[in-house]
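Provenance and format

Records in this collection were gathered into a single text stream. Each protein contributes a sequence line and a C-alpha cell line. The two records reproduced below are adjacent in the stream.
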Amino acid sequence: MTTKTATEKPRCSWAGTDPLMRLYHDEEWGVPQHDSRALWELLMLEGFQAGLAWITVLRKREAFRSAFRGFDPAKVARFGEKDIARLMADPGIIRSRSKIDATIAGARIFLEMEKSGEGFGKTIWKLAGGRPIQNHGPVPAMTPLSADISAALKKRGFKFVGPTIVYAFMQAAGIVNDHAETCFRRKAVAKL
C-alpha cells in the first residue's frame, strides 16, 4: 500500500508524513547493506526498537551513535559499569538496561565472529541466501528465514533478535525488498 499527494511520488504507506521517516524510507530502507559494522549497528537499533515505534529510534539515532561511540564494536565491547551508568542516565537514548547489556554483549560476539573469520556481514548474507529477496504480496511480520536467522544469532549469544525483530532488520538492511509494488523506490532498490 502506498500514499501520495498530487505532487509527490508514491511511497510505502508506513513512511507517512514525518520528514525524517520519509527521508529514511527514500534513502536507506531496503538498500542492500553489506558492511559488517553498519549491519551490526542496524541490528542493535532494531533491538532497541522492540516494543516501540521505529520513529522513536530514528529520532534518537544520532544520540545512540554518540552514546555508543559510533557503534564501533571494539569500543562498545570494552564498556563497563561506568559506561552502563552513563547510558542509563542519557535521556537521548532508550534507557533499557537489558537492551544496553545486549548491545555490549553483541559487540563482543561481533568481535569474536570477526576474529574467527566468520565476518558478521558475510554470515548474515550467507544465512539469507547471499542475495536480496524480492518480496511480492502481503508483508509478513516474520518468515521461516527470519526465524532461522534469529535462531542462528541466538545460538551465538545475541539478544533481542527474535524472528520479528530479525525480519524488520532484514527489511531495513535490504536483505528483503518489501517496498510496495507501487512505491517509487521498489524498482530502484531491486536493481541494487
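Adjacent record:
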Amino acid sequence: MFMRFVKFHGYGNDYLVFDAGQLQRLGWRAGFAPFGADDEFTEFVRRVCDRHFGAGADGLAVVERLDGEADFALRIFNPDGGEAAMSGNGSRCAAAALHFDGLWSDDELRFLTRAGVKRYTLRERLSTGAFRFEAEIGRPLFDTASIPMLTPTPLAEVRDYPLALTEDETVAVTALQMCNPNCCVFVEDFERVDWRRLGRTIERHAAFPERTNVEFVRTLDRENIEARVWERGAGETLSSGTGACAAAVASMIGGLTDRSVGVRMPGGLLRVVWRDDGEVLLTGTAEVVYRGEWLKGK
C-alpha cells in the first residue's frame, strides 16, 4: 500500500500535499477528527518530512473535499508532528496542488482551517505548475489571552514588551495572534544578531504556552521590510506566509510602515496588505517540485 503526494514550495518553504482519502484508507480519519492513534500519525509526519530519510519538507498539508461553508478542509502539520492552525505558504501550496491536479478549477477557493475559513483567489498562472494567489489570512489579535501569552497582568497589546530570556538577557518583542502565535523582534542587522539562538529560545519560552513562531524584522522603508523566520515546530525556514503577515502587521502598528508592504525573506518577496476592515491579505506564489509515492511502513 502506498500514498501519493505532490510537493510544492512557496519561496523555498516546502510542503507535501496529501489527499485525506488516502489516509482514511490506511485507517486514519480526515476532517478535524484525530488521525487515528496520535503517536502513529505523528511518527508518520516526522518520517515523511525528514530531509535525509524521508521526502523532506517544512510541513504536511492534508486536503479533504467538503460541501457547505468551504470547498475543502485543510490541515497543516509541522515536521515535528505537531499541528498548526494555519500556514500561509502551506495553504497556498495546497491550493496550487488542487489546481495542478485538476481537482479544482474556479479562481476562488475556500479552505476550512483551524483558524477559520480562508479565501484564496487565483491571480495568475505563471507557468506549468506555478501559480500566484491572493489570500485572506484573517484578522490579527493583539491581547495576551488571544495570542496566547502569559504576562504578570493581562495586556490589550504586546508591543515592545521586555521578554526576559535569562537573568542577564532581555529582548523587546511585539507579539500577536496571526492564525498562529507570533513574536516579532526588530533588528538593525541580521548579521550582528544570533537570531537562530534567540528564535530557538523564544519559541519555547514559558510565556508562550502553545510555543510561538518568531520573526526577526528589519525595516527598509515605509513600503518594504526584511524578515528571518524561526518557525514553531520547524526551526529556520526560508519563508513563512503567516510569519510575513505578522512581521508586516507588527511594523504597521509600530508606525514603521504603511499598510501595504513587501516582505523580503531569503526565499523571495511576499506582499502583505492590511485592509481597513481588519483583514490581512497575503499575495505570493507556489510552484510544483515533484510527485511522489510514500510506501506504508517505510
